[in-house]
Write the structure tokens for this entry.
Amino acid sequence: MASRDGGPSLGAMFGAGRAETFMGLPRWDGGPAPAVLLGADGCTPYPSVGFYCAGGPAAIRAAASAFALAHHNWNFDLGRPAFGARLPADGGDIPVDPSRPEENRRAIRDRVAAVIAQGAVPVLVGGDDSLPIPMLQALDGPLCVLQIDAHIDWRRDVEGERWGLSSTMRRASEMGQVERIVQVGARGIGSARPADVEDARRWGARLVPATDPDPVESALAQIPPGARIAVCLDWDGLDPSIMPAVIGRSAGGLSYADLLDLLTGAAGRGRIVAFAATEFMPSRDIDGQGATLAAQALIAVLGLLCA
Ligand SMILES: [Mn+2]
């Protein structure tokens, strides 16, 4: 695989061609697997912005092509081989249409449920941050939601839309199976008003802002031991210096090491039963840097789920 400028690339050095699936992993056949990656370009768009993260799954898959021959290599992010004996699978993209949000939500819910029914952990790759709502709806309780995000997403609605990306944690709080919400990485000014923060706190959401002296340890301490954890990662939770491919770059975010520590810490404390990575905006990426980070992070996530 050539790099973006046509020059030498890491993938070419390793002999990897352009893979059709994420990292060249096997296509999901609908049967048992340790984890299944699913892409979706969006779910419930706001009229003003539409599917602004469309193409995110494709960009991240393209970046992961560089590692297509590395399934059995050592992953230093995890301190062990990339995957166990059973490889994760790629379930392809869920067809979505910006003019049919209700159908999108149903399709995502059904596809996630089909993955779970096979004993596999769904890894949903977006697409905007409205995607986790139907994913969470497909999960049984009790659930601990671990949100990593620059924004708390507790708006009742935006532009009259209740199921959009700024309401994801509010909708999660209304689901009977969600017992705990831990939110890490909030900073700067987002869409939250003081009343939204009050509502989150009153419900019992554990808010760990990015300014916390040790946001990783503070967040992990709020996850009940043995919890079934649904991770909702918005890429803007990371610092924009390492993840530029987001609509709202906000300084002071988590580092890549913080992200790894959070995820490995969460997997050690409880069990990750679902994972969503959202808000990757290809048009904001810089020379593929964000897509490469996303691919590396998702390879670590799949490895954690396949141990
Ligand atoms: Mn966000």
